[in-house]
């Protein structure tokens, strides 16, 4: 969906720019950048290349360093690249758009998964004022990217494994914000039938294809408000457009074009 967002933005800004997908194998990003077109104004990087993008970036913004993930690369002088993390912005704006209000500073958040997207979710939830942060993952060894990011950011978090049903339900019952970062193809393996969430909570699932995801269906059945993953994608894309072009654009202007494509693929 990124080309949909970017091309619509460039048209709106009156720029005759192109944006296309390019498959780059793990371990070859640096070689790809070395041979990149000199007219290239930036790259939107997806998994599994986000940690690798941080390694190849000569410079990186604070969020990229804190989360350990770069999803945006912009050329600098002398063949160097600057790395940014706009996923955090995408998550923050998606939640703010759904609540339409300031979230309570004493709120709590639960994140499903412990990878790079979960690391960005931690940073976003901290920015939104969530004081109690819980990561639910396959085990409690705390080796994932999100746990490493939490240590870099000085965040005090709780770690719960999916099989610890009582502890998981306790965290879910108190959570105001829920963030899903588990890929859609493996969500069916999660023990959701044994779990119940706070019906006043809001779930943002980073996965969006196919939609609704198993996690989104489960959360909706429990009464939670659902934010589709393309809202996060939209807002982080708007931030990328600003980095590439230097121009501001309102997400609301691009949303109809994105939804038209999303609805046509349902």
TrEMBL record:
Descriptive protein name: Putative shikimate dehydrogenase
Pathway field: Metabolic intermediate biosynthesis; chorismate biosynthesis; chorismate from D-erythrose 4-phosphate and phosphoenolpyruvate: step 4/7
Gene Ontology cellular-component annotations: cytosol
Lineage: Bacteria, Bacillati, Actinomycetota, Actinomycetes, Actinomycetales
GO annotation terms (biological process): aromatic amino acid family biosynthetic process; chorismate biosynthetic process; shikimate metabolic process
Keyword set, alphabetical order: Amino-acid biosynthesis, Aromatic amino acid biosynthesis
Pfam families: SDH_C (PF18317), Shikimate_dh_N (PF08501)
MF terms in GO: NADP binding; shikimate 3-dehydrogenase (NADP+) activity
Organism: Mobiluncus curtisii (strain ATCC 43063 / DSM 2711 / V125) (Falcivibrio vaginalis)
């Amino acid at each position: 969906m990124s080309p949909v967002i970017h091309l619509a933005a460039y048209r709106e800004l009156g720029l005759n720019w192109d944006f296309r997908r390019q498959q780059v194998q793990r371990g070859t990003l640096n070689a790809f950048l070395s041979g990149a077109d000199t007219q290239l104004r930036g790259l939107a990087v997806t998994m599994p290349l986000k940690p690798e993008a941080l390694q190849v970036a000569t410079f990186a913004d604070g969020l990229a360093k804190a989360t350990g993930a770069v999803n945006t690369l912009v050329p600098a002088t002398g063949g160097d690249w600057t790395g940014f993390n706009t996923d955090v912005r995408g998550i923050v704006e998606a939640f703010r758009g759904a609540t339409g209000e300031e979230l309570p500073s004493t709120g709590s958040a639960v994140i499903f998964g412990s990878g790079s997207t979960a690391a960005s979710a931690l940073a976003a939830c901290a920015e939104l004022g969530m004081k109690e942060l819980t990561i639910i993952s396959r085990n409690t060894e705390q080796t994932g990217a999100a746990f490493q990011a939490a240590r870099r950011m000085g965040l005090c978090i709780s770690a719960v494994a999916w099989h610890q049903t009582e502890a998981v339900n306790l965290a879910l019952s108190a959570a105001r914000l829920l963030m899903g970062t588990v890929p859609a193809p493996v969500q069916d393996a999660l023990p959701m039938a044994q779990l119940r969430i706070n019906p006043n909570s809001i779930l943002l699932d980073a996965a969006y294809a196919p939609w609704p995801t198993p996690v989104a269906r489960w959360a909706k059945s429990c009464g939670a408000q659902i934010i589709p993953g393309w809202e996060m994608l939209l807002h982080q894309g708007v931030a990328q457009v600003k980095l590439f072009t230097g121009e501001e654009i309102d997400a609301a202007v691009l949303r109809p074009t994105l939804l038209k494509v999303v609805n046509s693929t349902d």
